[in-house]
From TrEMBL:
The lineage of its organism: Bacteria, Pseudomonadati, Pseudomonadota, Betaproteobacteria, Burkholderiales. This is Zinc-dependent peptidase. It comes from the Bacteria. GO terms for molecular function: aminopeptidase activity; metallopeptidase activity. PANTHER family: MTFA PEPTIDASE, PROTEIN MTFA. GO terms for cellular component: cytosol. Transmembrane segments: none annotated. CDD domains: Peptidase_M90_mtfA.
Length: 282
């Protein structure tokens, strides 16, 4: 977003989040309990600006309440807490972290999952059509769709590493630098000095190497479970679809079930600490 947007944030006085509503939101999202007082204050400020910048609309008769909007804001802003700016540099004004989400305004809430028609062309050129149930969808340069049924169960689903809000907003991070015709690859802009790498090229190479190893290992585990009756992975096997989905699904688990995630993906834990949480990586 332009410098004008940053200046506008400095002048804006977004509506404060009522204390009672904030407490209720935190109680419904127990994975936020690990945050300390300063982090919760920072998260609350981010939420206030997020709510001032985004527009919520309900579909199929769903009425969006303040509680629903705040729940989404809190989950969407959680990955931003210790993040660098989308240019790779630290931000001086915390609300400017919302630049990561600056390519869209609208958030559409559906009561439940949405059935979408899909087409895929195989290696022989044959087009196959199928129907996919979507709990959320992030469109490059466009609005974001979420199933309220899935959002509302975020507290319970954290135990299995699921969080549809974080999933879709991480997709937005991944899409931010895409050129026309490109597809997300699970490779967002890395911070300057990422994990003590010497330059941007070395940082990118390290990210790609660790992600590739983890992705291939996960796909192998899924294949063993499906073909030979092996123990299925803890994470949703949707992560085996492609690198972008692997990034989004593993980020869900990283934020909502960190200890369990770290046991299954120790190399990714270090990688994501370096990206999302510089203090944990230092």
């Amino acid at each position: 977003m332009s410098w004008f947007a940053s200046l506008r944030r400095r002048w804006r006085r977004p509506a404060p989040v009522p204390d009672g509503l904030w407490r209720d939101t935190l109680a419904a999202l127990p994975f936020l309990a690990a945050l300390d007082g300063a982090e919760l204050t920072r998260l609350r400020v981010l939420c206030q600006h997020f709510l001032a910048e985004k527009e919520f609309s309900g579909a199929n008769g769903l009425v969006v309440t303040d509680a629903m909007a705040l729940s989404i804001a809190a989950q969407a802003c959680r990955p931003l807490l210790h993040l660098h700016g989308p240019d790779g540099r630290p931000v001086r004004h915390p609300p400017d972290l919302l630049d990561w989400y600056d390519d869209f305004v609208g958030i559409v809430l559906q009561p439940g999952a949405v059935l979408a028609r899909r087409e895929v062309r195989d290696h022989a050129g044959v087009v196959h059509e199928y129907t996919e149930a979507l709990a959320g969808e992030a469109m490059d340069g466009g609005p974001l769709m979420l199933s309220w049924e899935d959002v509302a169960s975020a507290g319970e689903r954290a135990a299995i590493g699921h969080n549809v809000v974080i999933h879709e907003f991480v997709h937005k991070m991944d899409m931010r630098e895409l050129q026309v015709g490109e597809h997300p690859q699970g490779a967002p802009t890395l911070p300057d000095g990422f994990l003590n790498t010497r330059d941007t090229r070395a940082a990118r190479a390290h990210w790609q190497r660790v992600m590739k190893d983890a992705y291939e290992g996960f796909r192998e585990a899924v294949a063993l479970a499906e073909r030979f009756g092996g123990e299925p992975p803890w994470l949703d096997d949707y992560a085996a679809k492609d690198p972008a989905e692997f990034f989004a699904v593993t980020c869900e688990a990283y934020f909502v079930s960190r200890e369990r995630f770290g046991r299954g993906f120790p190399a990714l834990l270090t990688l994501y600490d370096g990206f999302f949480n510089a203090s944990a990586a230092s």
